[in-house]
Amino acid sequence: MGSAAVEDMIEASSGVHFSGFHMDGLDSRHIKKPMISPATENMHNQPFLIGVAGGAASGKTTVCEMIIQQLHDQRVVLVNQDSFYHKLTEEELARVHEYNFDHPDAFDTEKLLDSIDNLRHGRAVDIPKYDFKSYKLDVFPVRRVNPSDVIILEGILIFHDPRIRELMNMKIFVDTDADVRLARRITRDTVGKSRDIGAVLDQYSKFVKPAFDDFILPTKKYADIIIPRGGDNHVAIDLIVQHIRTKLGQHDLCKIYPNLYVIQSTFQIRGMHTLIRDSQTTKHDFVFYADRLIRLVVEHGLGHLPFTEKQVITPTGSVYTGVDFCKRLCGVSIIRSGESMENALRACCKGIKIGKILIHREGDNGQQLIYEKLPQDISKRHVLLLDPILGTGNSAVQAISLLIKKGVPESNIIFLNLISAPQGVHMVCKSFPRLKIVTSEIDIGLNKDFRVIPGMGEFGDRYFGTDDDDDQKVVTPMQQSC
Ligand SMILES: Nc1ncnc2c1ncn2[C@@H]1O[C@H](COP(=O)(O)OP(=O)(O)O)[C@@H](O)[C@H]1O
Ligand SMILES: Nc1ccn([C@@H]2O[C@H](COP(=O)(O)O)[C@@H](O)[C@H]2O)c(=O)n1
Ligand SMILES: [Mg+2]
């Protein structure tokens, strides 16, 4: 994904992610509003942008219609590249059989980009309808396209321009044999568009086939998914729809960073977050609920380790085919807050070795590595890096860089935290695309003091009891019942 797209995502993804919670009943006068930038105030959810390319009559529209049908409960719009054909001059119209409709220059790509930009920023656009018979764009009535959760861009050359390609979250290439495409084209153009068969074959050999070879086929390499047999391939379409559904349920940052995992939110998890974030929660309850959440994050993180298949004999004498845990493993905690996660890791992985890293923070950027104690053979182990809060990402980057310097492959590091700020996620995921981050919630951002907001204050102080006035804190009904 391109830098412009990433910057837009940063802007949008810094916004509140309520995950099913409503503000009804809350008295807004008592809620301190975080200081947020105007860009964040205008935040919107980023649509999931899908590109569908392939030769003419390969089945692109058919595939798109099948996806849309399966996503009937979502807001999905289809934008055809055809709508952006340049208007032909009188001269071109007079000699239309010499016009190359399959060349990238036949399309008004700037206008297409402008429409996509508007849709991505939540603005409706008017798109002309293209009439294949008259070769004209019907400006009246135009088609009004509203911003949606999923935008599908379809067209023979939709992957040609890198600026459009970079905006796409998923790229599909419909791969259908040339003879099938030609046969369908002949039927479509003669029966559907009342064209003369000689002219159709002439256009095919003069323009369509060379353009396919020179411009369309070379874009196949950009596809994330290649669908052979188009609409007949129900398995591929089901998988694509499943993937889109997963992505729609995720935080915007997960759409751009495949190495970021936010554990599935439930009301239990939200309840635990509510307690640990509440400034009135007692130290005892803070530790109890933080430990519960940490355990969930640790278990989720362990799920990302490689495994080997293992068969055992059960007491009934039957064979059970399962998996064996990854053996070469260690934890590394970033002192001091990270140490709060050690017990959960020890509880899950008996006898696990745990190393420590201390990074001193001076303001935002003055990071200094003060102390490290790591297992000697760390380069041969998978490392679970522990820190409950990911803020600016500066300490995390220092710690990860140290692990890599010690010979730990980037892909062997799983960074576990409870709360992440988008700024830290961007920094870590961009710097280390092969590492995995597992977190339980992503917050709005950082305040001017680089503290995560809404956040939960100084985790280490609250967990280890080094903050003050614990006695004044009240016990809530939920704390009593759970
Ligand atoms: N799997 C298929 N089997 C039979 N006909 C198909 C299939 N997929 C598409 N078609 C037909 O082929 C023609 C071109 O399909 P379409 O989806 O419009 O392709 P494209 O959008 O790539 O030009 C249409 O008439 C369509 O009905
Ligand atoms: N006036 C026109 C405009 C375009 N074409 C052909 O349409 C093909 C693209 O449309 P698909 O739905 O098949 O993607 C392309 O091959 C153009 O040659 C046309 O024939 N007349
Ligand atoms: Mg089509």
Key descriptive features of the protein:
482 residues, 5-stranded parallel sheet, Rossmann fold, disordered N terminus, binds adenosine-5'-diphosphate, alpha/beta, disordered C terminus, 2 domains, single chain, 23% strand, 8-stranded mixed sheet
Question: What is shown here, in short?
Answer:
The protein is α/β, with parallel strands linked by helices and 482 residues long. It folds into two domains: 44-248, Rossmann fold (3-Layer(aba) Sandwich), CATH 3.40.50.300; 257-481, Rossmann fold. It has helices spanning 3-13, 38-41, 60-70, 90-94, 109-120, 162-165, 178-192, 197-216, 234-248, 252-256, 267-277, 283-302, 342-348, 394-405, 422-431, 459-464, 477-481; strands at residues 48-54, 76-80, 125-131, 136-145, 150-154, 170-175, 225-228, 260-262, 308-313, 319-324, 329-335, 353-362, 366-373, 382-386, 389-390, 413-420, 436-442, 445-446, 452-453.
